[in-house]
Amino acid sequence: MREDIEKVIVSQGEIQEAVARLGKEIQTDYVGKVPIFICILKGAVVFMTDLIRAYDAPAEIEFMDVSSYGDAFESSGEVRILKDLDIPVNGRDLIIVEDIIDTGRTLEALIKLLKTRGASSIKICSFLDKPARRLINVHVDYTGVLVPDEFLVGYGLDYKNQYRNLPYVGVLKPIIYS
């Protein structure tokens, strides 16, 4: 897999530093509260695992699986819920945990859905933010790393469900997906 990577964008060390910083920031903002961290599958599971360990206070975790890409290279704009939450969120403080925010379409749909379910507050924590691709203006409350508009894999990000297990974030060589 490593030979398919053009260059590393975020190293293992940089990942660890960003996750530790985010855990502390969120912990400071949620003193006296018990937020629900909602991991957006599959991409955010690696980040979520590290983030929840960096958050040293009471919290709950939940999982959702949503799709706007399928196997496509670009987002279709249609967001489908593949796995919903197992608990009600009415009156709860939610933190949506994403691997990367690019167009903002998926996030916009999730926020609307969770607001209709009566969440007390909704904040967004994304390991990576790719603002150059933003089509929908969504506010990301906690950002690990800003990244360029390149095809990224590793640390949960995939291409055709591969490369998620790389311990860094790298640019996939165009010959792989062309």
From TrEMBL:
Main location: cytoplasm
Required cofactor names: Mg(2+)
Catalysed reactions listed for this entry: IMP + diphosphate = hypoxanthine + 5-phospho-alpha-D-ribose 1-diphosphate; GMP + diphosphate = guanine + 5-phospho-alpha-D-ribose 1-diphosphate
Domain of life where this protein originates: Bacteria
Locations listed in the record: Cytoplasm
InterPro entries xrefs: HGPRT, Hxn_phspho_trans, PRTase-like, PRTase_dom
Pathway(s) per entry: Purine metabolism; IMP biosynthesis via salvage pathway; IMP from hypoxanthine: step 1/1; Purine metabolism; GMP biosynthesis via salvage pathway; GMP from guanine: step 1/1
EC nos: 2.4.2.8
One term of GO molecular function: glycosyltransferase activity
Family: Belongs to the purine/pyrimidine phosphoribosyltransferase family.
Reported function: Purine salvage pathway enzyme that catalyzes the transfer of the ribosyl-5-phosphate group from 5-phospho-alpha-D-ribose 1-diphosphate (PRPP) to the N9 position of the 6-oxopurines hypoxanthine and guanine to form the corresponding ribonucleotides IMP (inosine 5'-monophosphate) and GMP (guanosine 5'-monophosphate), with the release of PPi.
Protein name (record): Hypoxanthine phosphoribosyltransferase
Organism: Lapidilactobacillus achengensis
Gene: hpt
